[in-house]
Amino acid sequence: MAKISFWLQRLAQLLIVLLLVTFGVSMLLRLIPVDLATVLLPVGSESERAVLRAEIGLDKGPIAYYLQWLGDFVQGDFGKIYFSGGTEEVSTHLAQAMPRSMLLMIYTQVFALAVAIPLGVISAYRAGRRADRIISNTLFTFSSVPSFAIALILIIIVGTKLAWLPTLGYVTYSEGFAEHFKHMIMPVLALSVGLIATYTRLLRADMIAALREDYVTMAASKGLSDRRILWRHVFRPSSITLFTSAALSMGGLIGGAIVIETIFATYGVGFEIFAAISGRQYVALQSTVAVIALFYVLFNLVVDIASGFVDPRTRDRRVNA
Amino acid sequence: MTTIMSIRDLNVSFDTPRGMLEAVRGVDLEIEAGTSIGIVGESGSGKTVMSRAAMGLLQGRNVRRTGTVVYDGQELTAMTREQVRNTFGTGMAMIFQDPMTALNPVRRIGSQLSEGLRVRLGLSKKAASARSKELLDLVHIPDAQAMLHKFPYQLSGGMRQRVMIAIAIACKPKLLFADEPTTALDVTVQAQILQLLRELRQELDMSMVLVTHDLGVVAGNTDSVAVMYAGEVVEYATTKKLFAGMRMPYTEALLQSIPKVDHPSGKRLSVIAGRLPDPIDRGAGCSFAPRCQYVQAKCHTEHPPLEADPDGHLFRCWFPIGGAK
């Protein structure tokens, strides 16, 4: 029983976060000292603008506007993108952009973890020795280069000079499996370099601390090999910070890959945000930010559930709290 | 009688930013098969480092170990880590001081217990699990089957210590290092654990090195006692002889610092004034001299050697209790 009420409480907290975020964004939009209807329909007639104001609630106060937007949003109506020729549904755009960003995020995450975990384990095991110094210094160097610079360097060298990989666009895997991955390699590399450095560092620090624990000496005294001790006894208790950080960065990767998605023109959610800002599509911006916030919150929940499996102590502690 | 472990001139030091920290200095010990030896000394006297170094469990780039340790005819100090590892569990095992920190917090008791059985004895998963349950029965843990599925944080200190003992004896070691096995426990549990260790030693025909700061624990549980101070053995005798007449002022002071039931209440506990000498810069003379109530001029300038009475009682003192050498 305690468990159920704990999770209900947790869900309620997350809902409140969502409401606060979307309300904040809504208020910010209304603070812009221009007439939003004019911005959205710069060439339309005054009567068309009046219809638009009534349709999305711009004729009402900020709170009523927010409530109307929220009502539409939960029913799946994310608003429209307005341009001179007519309108497009934000939801159609997101339906195309979302899977792209999700895949980009998943590839990036899997790649970053697959590289960072062995590196972190090695550099903790060989802390202060040559392997550790090489790993740490290399990662430090790479992580101090911003991801857009890495993206541009990759495009110039791998894309243009060597012409190994396409530099632009996105191909769905139903259109061609190999092409799909070819288009993803460079964006994934550009996005994961910083993550790899962060993950390796987190894991290294936690593992070095865990290696000093009595239970590691105890495991050694049972006659276990170093490899077994590292993976079975040290990695798991040291991995909670790593996985928490990974899960939290997922939300950021979905909406936050704005620069990378724009450079490589993959048309994901990040690109939609970029387009909404530069085209002053404020309703689209508001709904897209809300979707990203929703994912952020969901990944948070996943972290909470998963950490209970990684470290059983947190399971009971939470219930008791 | 055969010797299960022989330690010769064991020195352990740690390279620290301030200089070499000499934790263990020139320790010689013989452990006869089937016997139990107590290593006694206050915190920082080097007893834990000594026992871990003897087993080869000290790791790190700053550790310097010299001397020889021979276990069951094999010179551990000349073997590779893999070879030493092959003596763990089935040959040597260790019970750690703090049952709160020596069990892996994120793994179930069952997996921690059966791991050694599977790796060292090659048992199948099923056989290891069945044996684990037997081991928990052996250390008198009620409802052993359920215990296998629990995590350490769900257990009391006494139960964890029993689990740790079960892990240590899982592969029937010939030599068990028990490093302060009862220090973290309250007195009633302490008596039960010591009783349990006595039973297990008989059942498994195991030799034991019992490391403790408590002369009271040593009294009924060991055949001989080595008293350590500042990294050195300062007195060594059979337990009977030691309690019949200790020669080293430090041992006497250690005994006097144990509170007694018949002491009038309100009486101050006797303590050994002062502190252990700086392990990096120990100076000349007897290490205990600054704290010794019988100290004389010679004690400050010349380091006493470990010398023997005619009956084999060893002590490191210029002016031993009970008179002339």
Describe the structure.
The complex is a heterodimer of chains A (321) and B (325). Chain A has 321 residues and is mainly alpha-helical. Chain A has helices spanning 2-31, 36-40, 46-56, 62-74, 90-125, 130-143, 147-161, 177-211, 214-221, 226-238, 240-256, 258-263, 269-278, 282-310, 312-320, and strands at residues 80-83, 86-89. In chain A, helix 5 (90-125) packs across helix 13 (269-278), helix 6 (130-143) packs across helix 8 (177-211) and helix 8 crosses helix 10. In chain A, 35% of the residues are buried. Chain B has 325 residues and is an alpha/beta fold. Chain B folds into 2 domains: 3-91 and 171-315, P-loop containing nucleotide triphosphate hydrolases (Rossmann fold, 3-Layer(aba) Sandwich), CATH 3.40.50.300; 102-170. Chain B has helices spanning 47-55, 81-85, 109-121, 125-138, 144-147, 157-169, 187-204, 215-219, 239-244, 249-256, 297-301, and strands at residues 3-16, 19-32, 36-40, 63-71, 74-75, 92-95, 175-179, 207-212, 224-229, 232-238, 307-308, 314-315. In chain B, the strands form 2 sheets. In chain B, strands 6-7-8-3-9-10-12-11 form an 8-stranded mixed sheet, with helices on both faces. A 4-stranded antiparallel sheet of chain B has the order 2-1-4-5, covered by helices on one side. The model of chain B has no long low-confidence stretch (mean pLDDT 90). The interface between A and B is medium-sized, with 24 and 36 residues.
